[in-house]
Amino acid sequence: MLVHLRRSLVLAVICLVFFGFVYAFAGIGVSQLLFKHQADGSLTANGSTLIGQNWAATKCPGNPLGSCVFNGRPDDTGPYAANPKDNVSGGDNPLVANGVSGESGATNLGPRSKVLLADTKALVAYWHKLGVDPTPDLVTTSGSGIDPDISALDATVQIPMVSKATGISPARLRTLIRQQTHPAQWGFLGSSYIDVLQLNEGLAKLEK
Amino acid sequence: MGFFLTILALVVTLGLAWRYLGSYMAAVFEGRVHFLGFIERPIYRMLGTSPEQEQTWKRYAGAMIIFSAVSIAFTYVILRIQGSLPLNPQHLGAVGPALSFNTATSFVTNTNWQNYGGETSMSYFSQMGALTVQQFVSAAVGISAAMVLVRGFSRRKSPTIGNFWVDITRCLFYVLLPISFVAGIVLVGQGAVDTLAGTTTFHDALNGVTQTIARGPAGFMGSIMQLGTNGGGFFNVDLAHPLENPTGLTNLLYIWLTLSIPFALTYTFGKMVGSIRHGVALLAVMVIIFGVWVGFSANAEHQNNSAVAAAHVYSPVGNMEGKEVRFGDTTSALFNVSMTQTSDGAVDSATDSYNPMGGFGPLTGMMLGEVTPGGTGSGLYTLLIYAIIAVFIGGLMIGRTPEFLGKKIQAREIKLAGLGALVMPITVLVLTALAVSLAEGRAGPLNAGPHGFSEILYGLTSQGNNNGSAMAGLTGNTPFYNIIGGIDMLIGRFGIMIPALALGGVLAAKDVVPESLGTFRTDNGMFVGLTIGVILIIGGLTFFPAVSLGPIVEQLSHLRFF
Fold this sequence. Notes:
The complex is a heterodimer.
Chain A: H1 2-34, H2 36-39, E1 43-44, E2 47-48, E3 86-88, H3 114-129, H4 136-139, E4 149-150, H5 152-156, H6 159-166, H7 170-180, E5 194-195, H8 196-207
Antiparallel strand pairs in A: 1-2, 4-5
Chain B: H1 2-29, H2 37-47, H3 57-80, H4 97-108, H5 118-121, H6 124-154, H7 164-190, E1 200-204, E2 209-213, H8 219-227, H9 248-273, H10 276-301, H11 306-310, H12 329-341, H13 356-367, H14 378-398, E3 403-404, E4 407-408, H15 411-437, H16 439-442, H17 450-464, H18 479-508, H19 525-556
Antiparallel strand pairs in B: 1-2, 3-4
Helix pairs in contact in B: 1-9, 2-7, 3-4, 3-6, 3-18, 4-18, 6-7, 6-8, 6-14, 6-18, 7-8, 7-9, 8-9, 9-10, 10-12, 10-13, 10-19, 12-13, 13-17, 13-19, 14-15, 14-19, 15-17, 15-18, 17-18, 17-19
């Protein structure tokens, strides 16, 4: 009994040092040495390519909010726009799991939820007002609340809206979308996708 | 097409893990691997033990329980004083007592149920020193317990079944550490974040929005949390977070890490008992149930979400509520089913927003006792408990004394196996009944109607099975849920592990009966079918009424919203 306790304490301390700190610090060291860009969060001048942003808050001169850029998943638009000014990573969706600002989260609403039905209808109306016929991706929120990607189809249905607000021809936007579409990794892992931040950086170049 | 190639890639890579990791683990636990002897030997000296000092099952169990109690105490204290500890760039304060109790039991029991949001409540010190440590240790404890039951079959007339301190040290250093370190490098290379630099704030000139991005040492935590079937991620949304699971490849790697040890342990079992065929039989049980569950869950998620369809958005088909574009609907379902057929419980999509039959998959995967393939170690010992019951039933049918690998299965073994099989359903159902009877319990669910009941049932099933997956709409961070959840996890862990250790001890003491013509075969298709039958019948009989009030009624209530 006492010998068990003594050994338990010794092993717990060994594990704390070795698997708590030696492991984690060795991991951080190797990461920073080999893959500094990724380990720091894949940051570019305008944010992280891995973290979705609130494009719906973009001020578009003479046009409705967000209509001059491609929008991402509606993690923080329509009924989910709590605080579009201070867009904390995944935190402005009022329905995140614990309701804590700054925390990633999904709506967690079931498919037979009246709340989800009302929210979805509100999102459909929101898109129709912008002249977009939405796809399921554009009226559902993601698992993380900060999905950085949309599909090529999700971008294509936004062409009329973006073309009208920016004056760029639909044909040039279609070419941009084709250029920005990443195929599924190794051809089969997950889905084909477009990073919305990169897509809008490409769009900004076209506007110049 | 991509989905089937993903399955094929998993079959090939898991097949290699089954064969080679399986035989490597047998070598580790038989003491034939020594390349880290310079670390291993000093640890034995500090502990005052050695591989030659074997323990009886009672001493082994005593060591395991006291070590787990000390681990809970360590974890609890770190969480309570994290405000005064270093590595806390966000200046987070102490975690509350009920939440600390729940979290400490959660990580020590290999559950990783999370009633907190990682990036907003845990300091880097807590994530490393309290949580990641237990992701290693709890997995090693589970595998050690499985080794006891394996030795029960491989030894004859032996009063001892190994040395806990030696088993856990070998498992930690030779199995878990190398694999998780290599996998961590791959994860970070793909884009998983791993830094101590704290949050970063950006102003994006393109949309005029200022954004704060939470960061931390997530990549290397991700590799061990999956390899050890823990599942408690750095961020609140776990592996749906693009900074912990950035690409299709990392998603596949996380699935592989989770499934590799539980599947490979069947090879280890076969090798150690001297009959690979018996390992293959257990593997077949696992693969068949796993395959069916992946099939119907992926199919269910490739249907439209009812609410989205009711808002007249139909195409392309697939339930994308709570899912990430880079993974897609079917691969997300594969991921969540893999995590609930093991004791992992990580998610890359919100199970709460799954279609009713899509959510039925993860829920019932846990209810079947997580044996296909189950957690690291816990999957194998729980499956062996079911296999002993199957042998007993088979023996009754042909009217002979049942034997498994030459060991007579008698009254004492059946009592222990029965205890191991019934502890979990009783705990889960009693606590669910308690939660729905009390106002504190009914205050938990976010969704109304049958889905709300599913959330409660799912939460208590998950904790009782040491899974940690959640229908995250349930508000679990209340004193009521923190405390009954903690009790649920402790019973679910030790209520099965102790009978398994006892079985190992009792079986090791027996002699082997020579095989005869009348011996009931335990390595053929008949036995595989019988074991699958036992798993489905025990799970079905105990949980069908509860499940029919949740996902089944939700599926059948066509066109109704709650």
